[in-house]
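Please fill in the sequence for the structure shown.

STRUCTURE ENCODING:
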């Protein structure tokens, strides 16, 4: 299939498949594809805290594109096909596994709270955790026993997910260290991609400062969604800094939607 010859579908005629807290999924131009649209909404504490932060969706679209394209390039399979415009990307339709896979390198957030380990403590090794994706239940932490007993994923799929999580963590840790950022932890989601008679697990959703903890190596400044969760302010500035360090945004590009901006192909 030639994804470069995508038909243009006006926004109003697109079928909305799903609307989440920070993204909308629309029907794609070809069977088996979807369009993932990044909104400016920021939510935390299971959407009890909500704010629209102008420009966040544009930044997350670009940063997530950069990460997923590089994962594809090093042979880590993802749902990502290509970015379409400032807020949207073309993705493969997958069956989402209802788990949030969190990988931690440094203690922070809920791990620090639960186990009383001071934020910033380097962990003896990377730790993988699973949370059941269910807003009504507040995404409870679950073990492999729960996952297999309730049929959310098979033991083989859990092995595949953990292998992917380790590869993504190693790639991201190196990527961010190279631009002076410590990858404290991140969340990823996986999906089942069905191709002819085959099924494989791929990385799905997004990886962006909304779903990672990113600390400046020198100053320990937070460059992620904790700026919103903890009312620190300066979220757009922090995400823009990450984008610039990755070489995605040039100095004079504006993410704020303050007028037409040239989108590089
Ligand atoms: N995370 C996420 N979505 C969630 C919960 C967590 O993207 O619904 C990310 C979060 O940004 C952090 C990592 O997963 O990078 C670990 O989060 P933690 O369990 O510490 O929870 P939090 O402190 O965010 O409640």
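FILLED IN BY: designer on duty
SEQUENCE:
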């Amino acid at each position: 299939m030639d994804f470069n010859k995508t038909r243009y579908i006006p926004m109003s005629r697109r079928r909305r498949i799903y609307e989440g807290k920070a993204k909308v999924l629309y029907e794609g131009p070809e069977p088996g594809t979807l369009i993932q649209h990044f909104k400016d909404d920021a939510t935390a504490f299971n959407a009890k805290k909500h704010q629209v932060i102008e420009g966040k969706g544009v930044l997350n679209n670009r940063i997530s594109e950069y990460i997923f394209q590089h994962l594809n390039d090093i042979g880590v399979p993802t749902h990502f096909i290509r970015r379409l415009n400032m807020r949207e990307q073309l993705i493969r339709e997958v069956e989402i596994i209802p788990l949030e896979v969190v990988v931690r390198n440094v203690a922070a957030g809920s791990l620090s709270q639960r186990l009383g380990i001071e934020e910033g403590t380097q962990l003896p090794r990377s730790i993988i955790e699973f949370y059941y994706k269910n807003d009504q239940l507040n995404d409870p932490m679950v073990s492999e026993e729960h996952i297999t007993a309730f049929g959310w994923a098979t033991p083989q799929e859990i092995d595949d997910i953990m292998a992917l999580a380790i590869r993504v963590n190693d790639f991201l840790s190196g990527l961010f260290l190279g631009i002076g950022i410590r990858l404290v932890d991140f969340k990823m989601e996986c999906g089942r991609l069905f191709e002819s008679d085959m099924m494989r697990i791929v990385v799905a959703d997004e990886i962006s400062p909304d779903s990672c903890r990113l600390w400046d190596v020198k100053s320990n400044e937070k460059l992620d969604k904790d700026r919103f969760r903890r009312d620190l302010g300066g979220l757009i500035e922090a995400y823009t800094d990450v984008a610039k360090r990755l070489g995605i945004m040039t100095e004079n590009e504006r993410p704020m939607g303050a007028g037409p901006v040239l989108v590089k192909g």
